[in-house]
Design a protein that fits this description.
137 residues; alpha+beta; 5-stranded mixed sheet
């Protein structure tokens, strides 16, 4: 069984070597929104939160970073990076959802490419609600 643990900002450096490859794959498809080093800075400053999935042998097998966004009618837990085998499935994502609700979240969201969106739907019951288009100015 996997357990989701929240990593305090002061402990990010202690687990970074174990999780950076998980998060790097997600950062590489983020269209240069941020680098891995910038994400690390946001985590140690407490501007985003790091969650890890730990198996029964106390080995990290997945990681997720989130930030909370307050909208007029909802508080959204927005997934900013994600990776590993143990973080998005019914067992672990239900733990993430429970924690997010305790933080006041009413929704969970993430940007995703088409293939990623299918995985979110299959593994965590997400719905595609809008498409994002973008161009450099």
């Amino acid at each position: 069984m996997n357990t989701v643990q929240i990593v305090a900002p002061n402990n990010v450096y202690n687990v970074w070597a174990d999780i950076e490859n998980y998060l790097n794959a997600s950062i590489n498809v983020s269209n240069n929104d941020m680098t891995l080093d910038q994400l690390k800075l946001l985590l140690v400053r407490g501007e985003q939160t790091l969650l890890v999935s730990v198996n029964e042998n106390n080995k990290i097998n997945g990681a997720m970073t989130v930030e909370f966004i307050n909208h007029p009618n909802a508080r959204t837990m927005f997934i900013t990076a994600l990776g590993g085998l143990g973080i998005v499935n019914d067992e672990t994502f239900s733990q993430v959802e429970t924690w997010a609700r305790m933080q006041g979240a009413t929704k969970a969201a993430a940007w995703a490419q088409e293939a990623q969106a299918r995985l979110y739907k299959i593994k965590a019951n997400f719905d595609t609600v809008r498409m994002v288009v973008e161009k450099d100015l």
